[in-house]
Amino acid sequence: MILPDMACSHGSAAVTGAPVHVLPSRIRVTGGxxxxxxxxxxxxxxxxxxxIIIGIVPFGLVAGAAVTAAGLGxxxxxxxxxxxxxxxSQIAATALFSEGAPLLVTVxxxxxxxxxxxxxxxxxxxxxxxxxGRWRALLGHPLVDQSYAVTMTVGRYRDDISLVxxxxxxxxxxxxxxxxxxxxxxxxxxxxxxxxxxxxAVPLVxxxxxxxxxxxxxxxxxxxxxxxxxxxxxxxxxxxxxLIVAIVIGMVWGAARHHEHPAxxxxx
Amino acid sequence: MSERTEFWxxxxxxxxxxxxxxxxxxxxxxxxxxPRWLERLLRHVPAAALTALVVPASLYTKTDGVYxxxxxxxxxxxxxxxxxxxxxxxxxxxxxxxxxxxxxxxxLGG
Lengths: 268, 110
Fold this sequence. Notes:
Order of helices and strands of chain A: HHHHHHHHHHHH
Largest sheet of chain A: none
Largest sheet of chain B: 2 strands, antiparallel
Structural class of chain B: mainly alpha
Number of helices of chain B: 5
Number of strands of chain B: 2
Strand content of chain B: 5-15%
Oligomer: heterodimer
Distance between the termini of chain B: 44 Å
Strand order of the largest sheet of chain B: 1-2
Order of helices and strands of chain B: HHHEEHH
Radius of gyration of chain B: 21 Å
């Protein structure tokens, strides 16, 4: 078992008065040393993204292969992944650049694709910032779809970990796997056959994470509104803007409905 | 300006812009309390964002910027959704979705 059972993370992990020996063995109660708690939180974060790493390999390969196909080298592929750290926008920017688009259009398009991270950052700030202190602006860099998702749907409900190292640990694994597949793609081209459809692993893991995020009736309605909007808008709106519009529609719908049914829990 | 230099300009501009997008809200948090309407909006971001990432990738394949309905993906995503709702296991959801997709692609050819 790679990932702690998500249903369990709301329940038994949070039992405070239970004797230690009845807790599931994977939830270790540390002796209170801050160093070991930080290390265990890093490892817990790293483990929480384990199921997703197979899915990011094809994207890393494509991103690396695109850079060398555009006539650029390994330094550009590695540098771009280290500095930008946002795969979809990297692939888009590289494609536009190699098609000869103006630099402003190239950068502008890629930034629109990353605009959802502004929403993620606003949403994760109340969870991360109180633990993070004055260097919290640096915590923006590790904010990717997967680290956001595991921190918001799993990490923050666990009281046996510190959230900042959990979050950083989840990103470190993603960044290392991404960089390795990125380099492999830059050197050898995208050699995993597209027919294996390994890219499908990414939405599947997000789907598994979505279920525990549906706690209230308004969450379910927000998800349905977003899903309908995304199904219609993503194929027709340019530059992946359909994604952001769909998220905003879901947010607004959920907020409006939450007002009408403030505390209706659902059992999904 | 060489092509390399131009690409490094793209990298630095994109890196700076992306860093600002994801860091500003974290950095500014706590300077004044978030208004209630903002809190209400943000409560549903995880559900909305995950759905937005799942749905298009489960309905369509994209080749050269053209979206096409992908029946095998739709069936695989529905099977995975059932497993996710029933057992709440990431590994089981992932395994079910991939196996059903491969079987579906073998039978439906795509």
